[in-house]
C-alpha cells in the first residue's frame, strides 16, 4: 500500500454503521422517517416480487424495459440519462464505474446489455440478479476468450463491464481499471454513473446485496444518473493497460473525481485490516500471559512488552517519525491504531486532522507554549514551531484534485527533508569519528 496516491478509506466506507448520517439534524429526520420507511419497505417487497415476475415473463424489448422502469419508480428507483443520442449502437462493450450492486440492473432499464457473472456461484440467485452465466471458472484469459466469442456474434446484446471490480462510494475517486475488459474489442463506450439518495449513504463496504436492496426499499427514493460518453477507440499499437488507463482518466474527469492507482485487491486488504483492528479493540487486554508475549529488542528505547500488533504499530510509527520528527511518537501510534496505514497517518498529520504539540529537536530551542497551544487547538500541523527548513503546511483544499496534488507536493518535500536530515546527521557522525 505504500506509495499509493490515495487510501481505500477515501473511496469507501469502513463499516455498516457508517451508513447512518453523522449530522444531528439528519439523524433526527431519519428517526422520524423510520416508521414511514418500514411501511414502504413491506409494501415494496410485494411490489418488487411483481416487478421480478414481469421482467422474467416478458421478452427483452423496449416495451418490457418501459414497463419495468415505471414499476421501479414505485419502488423508489428513478433512472435518468443525459443525451441518450450519444449511445453508439455499434459498440459491443460498455465500460462503467461501479457504485452499487444494482448498477447493471439500472443500465439494463435503458438499453439491452449483459454483465457476466465474475463472482459467486452460478445458479438461480445469479440469474435472478440479472447476471449472464458463461460457464467459465478458469483464468482471466479463458474469460476474455469466451467474451470475445460472445461479442463476435453481432446479434448478442452488448457487454456491460465494471473494470474497477469493486464498488466505491463514487465521491472521491476511481479504483484502477483492470486491463482484461479492454482486451475484448478495440472500441468501448464509457458510461458515467452517479447515485444519490436522501438520509443515508449510498454505498457501504462489505454490505451484502440483500442488505442494499432492503435499504433501497426503505429510503424514499434513489436516483441513478447515467451519462453516456462518446465511444473511445484503441490507438495504434496501444497496450490494454494503457487503453484502460486512458478510459479511466476520461471517466474520472467526467465524474469530477480522482483517478487512483488503488486496485480492488488493495481495497480488500484494507477491509481486512479494518476488521482486524476492530477485533483488537474489543479483545481483552489480559487474554495472553505476559510471559508468552513477544518482546522487542532492547535496542528500541522505551519499549517494553508488546503484543504482535503492538510490535507492528511501533515499527510503522518509527517510519512515520523519520518523516515527521517533530510529531510526538504517542500521537503517531494512536493514529496508526485507527488507520493501520503509514501513508494515511502522514496525510492526517499533514492535513491537520490530528492535533498535537510539536516536539523540539535536539539542539533547537523549544517552541513557545502559546504558539504550540494555538497550533494544536486550531488543528494545524504545527509547522510554525519546527525549524524553518521544513516545508510549510498549506490550507486544506476543498477539491479532491487539489488535495491530491498538495498532499503529494508536501509528502515529496518532507521525504526530501528527511533524507537531507539523515545525510547531515550521519555525515557529521562520520566526520567526527574520522582521524
Automatic annotation (TrEMBL):
Source species, domain of life: Eukaryota
Swiss-Prot/TrEMBL GO biological process terms: lipid droplet formation; lipophagy; protein localization to lipid droplet; response to virus; retrograde protein transport, ER to cytosol
InterPro entries linked: AUP1_CUE, CUE
SMART domains: CUE
Biased composition (Low complexity): 370-386
Compartments, as annotated in UniProt: Endoplasmic reticulum membrane; Lipid droplet
Protein name: Lipid droplet-regulating VLDL assembly factor AUP1
Main location: endoplasmic reticulum
Domain CUE: 312-354
GO terms for cellular component: autophagosome; endoplasmic reticulum membrane; lipid droplet
Location of the region described as Disordered in the Swiss-Prot/TrEMBL record: 357-403
GO molecular function, one term: ubiquitin binding
